[in-house]
Amino acid sequence: MNDYRHSPDLPWGYWMRTATSPGGVVTVIDEEGRSWLSVRDAFWSGRLHMCRGPGQVQNEQLELMLAMLASMHRGVVALPEQTHALFSGDHRHAQFWRYWMQAEGLVDNDFRNDPLIAKPSAEGIAVLRMLAATRPIELNAIPIGAAAVRFCGNPYMDDEYNRHAFEAEVNGALPYVFVRENIFGSESISLLTRNPRDVIPMARTIWHLPFPDATLRDRAFHWMIDRSDRWTSWGELVTERGPTALTQHLMTLVFAGHRERQSHEPPRHAGRLAIAHDEAERP
Length: 283
Fold this sequence. Notes:
The protein is of the alpha+beta class. The protein folds into 2 domains: 17-153, no CATH class; 172-281, no CATH class. It has helices spanning 39-47, 55-74, 79-87, 91-103, 122-133, 146-153, 160-170, 214-225, 231-241, 243-256, 270-281, and strands spanning 17-20, 26-29, 35-36, 176-183, 186-193, 204-211. It has a 3-stranded antiparallel beta sheet. It has a 3-stranded antiparallel beta sheet with strand order 4-5-6. Helix 2 (55-74) packs across helix 5. The longest helix has 20 residues, at 55-74. It is globular. Residues 259-283 are annotated as: Disordered.
């Protein structure tokens, strides 16, 4: 039987406390006195005993757990449909996840319930509440489910096919979306937004940057994908201060992350990038 001792009506981890170090770093302290970066970190590494790997991996797997718990709690979506949506039809993977969550006590585990049809346990419901309340800000506009899981995993894409899939996935899911375009013969990146309250909620271009060729454009777009969690704040920057503010901000980010070259020779594409930047700044 599950020995969860806390209220399932409150998010998992509500019993912990926060503490601020002399350097101003806020940490979460659990019942055993261990310090964690966040409640999600305490659950991932403390409760589930997972290693502290890349944050993107943690968010992707916790988003998958959230989608599964929410689906199981509602009891509307059958297992085959859930397997197709969340696990791309991989039944073995889906079954393993269900049995593993039962072993962890997140699914009813009195050994009389088949984990393939069982409901979340009291702790599982509390975890569901916590994960829903602490989702990364970039997921605010994406409903819990398969789309959010794929969104979490996609920033590590390296090939062209996956970049196209990423564009298709986030289009309409986020309030601000960057897309690659060829407009009037120019390879470009545009920032689109749409107002769902409009009579006809058509996408509107609020920022545009042309490039000399598709290769440079795709490199820039891949750089943006790696920072997709900032798209909403970048879009808000354009809305509040205009497109020039975003162009200047992106240039600052690029140069801030640029390592000084050992050679004094100019970068191979410096001239073309400068031209692209100048063209983007023209009215």
